């Protein structure tokens, strides 16, 4: 939201690099990306609106062929993602939401349910076992990692964020100091100055706070 098409492409490329390098999943909610951005995703999940119903869940590369088999081919010179959303938007001339939801339940959902059942039947390593395999010292606490390590990790991350944006550290210190100087100057020699002169300083101070 708020990004240009080029910035959105750079952002998705970065997420793809992180996901491939670290072996993690990245879930992205994106609305009508251009074709080059859409091709960066491995999988695609399409939901209808009001209420949200699954219409497609599978590889991004297979989406065009899947919709073509449902007699919903992507027209020439049309962004595929725009075409998919047009098909799933109720009230439009190309609305095929009910047909695609029914096709998903008949063709895709049984296979997905079977994969979920197989995954649930597998007993993978617990978080504690994964930490032990990585050589981490595991504490006998609900969090498996000691308080000191948690604190060190959070502080290290905070320092890195501050180093990326030094102004976030300077401003919280500089603004109260400046306000203190102005307030002290405003009350300097109070009782010896005229009321009008002190009122001008008070007005400036209140304006700065607002």
Give structural attributes:
mainly alpha, 9 helices, two-stranded antiparallel ribbon, 2 strands, 210 residues
Describe this protein's structure.
Helix 8 (167-187) packs antiparallel against helix 9. The mean pLDDT is 83. The protein has helices spanning 5-22, 35-38, 63-69, 80-88, 97-121, 127-133, 147-164, 167-187, 195-209, and strands at 43-47, 54-59. Strands 1-2 form a two-stranded antiparallel ribbon. It is built from nine helices and two strands. By secondary structure, it is mostly helical. The longest helix has 25 residues, at 97-121.
Question: Brief description of this entry?
Answer:
The chain has helices spanning about 5-20, 35-40, 65-70, 80-90, 95-120, 125-135, 145-165, 165-185, 195-210; strands spanning about 45, 55-60.
List the helices and strands and how they pair.
Layout: H1 5-22, H2 35-38, E1 43-47, E2 54-59, H3 63-69, H4 80-88, H5 97-121, H6 127-133, H7 147-164, H8 167-187, H9 195-209
Antiparallel strand pairs: 1-2
Helix pairs in contact: 8-9
